[in-house]
Protein: VOC family protein
Organism: Halobaculum lipolyticum
Amino acid sequence: MTDVTPTPGIHHVTCVAGDPQRNLDFWVETLGLRLVKRSINQDDSGTYHFFFADAEGTPGTSMTFFPWENLSQGKVGSGQVSRTAFRVPEGSLDYWESRFDEYGVEYDDRVERFGETVLPFVDPDGLPVELVETVIPDDDPTVPWTEFVPAEHAIRGFHSVTLWLANPDATMDLLRTMGLEEVGTEESPGDTPGDERTRFAAAGPVGSYVDVLPTIQAGRQGHGTVHHVAFQTPTDDDQAAMRAAVRGEGLNPTQQIDRHWFRSVYFREHNGVLFELATSDPGYDSDEPLEDLGGRLVLPGEFEGQRDRIEAQLPDVTVPRADPVEADD
């Protein structure tokens, strides 16, 4: 078998939204993430692609969206990422519940999972999301974005994704091939259609966990669902080895595709969830200064020559900005 460098964890998660302005308002202002890239879907240039992350767009922090307004509401079900969870510092869930009350965000009661406290909620498109209280170490690679949320409560990258699968065994074997280790199983009453949650852990500090739950509940893609989950394969060599290992599992990964801020390989795992392998470089600051990330519409590669046509198709949006604090006289 090809030697595989274990994935450090999740690189990004890409979801389907509806109204682009509502999506921007919620993920930037309400949740306090930074818009680190404002671009287009490279397979559908008439649609935005928004990237929300920490202050520097660190791998393992970016939640991205295709706001396809003409799609219908989706339904979470088997063969999908059913939940995306973010890390927040210990003791911050009181702040988040108060903030959700202020902004009218729908959330559920806290639950305990593998010894951690979880606050489930949904975004305006009905996307299931969770905040998980964790200890953020001093050497954590993430950098909090503090324009709307103070650092002591700010989201600090991914915690986990939960996969709903009809036949989990083959997918669990794939996760082991990718270098994740099974670290525990516990009952999951009232949380999902499945009755037992199995957790896998990657070696990296951010986006480390993948939870697997069995279910045959049918789903459909649309607003409020995850399009795909990307795992870090930091270098081209790492990615090539992982691609070979995935082929060895009987799956059919694509060739490498240049996505401008990372290079990608895509494949559907055994239960139909779309997985991506993504490199760490060149990063979101490869075509914009760090201080200007998300400030303009970036059109990668050949799309720049089509700017007039593309901009004419896209709806106008305004990125939320915090009101400046007036200095005392």
Helices lie at 20-30, 93-103, 168-177, 236-248, 307-313.
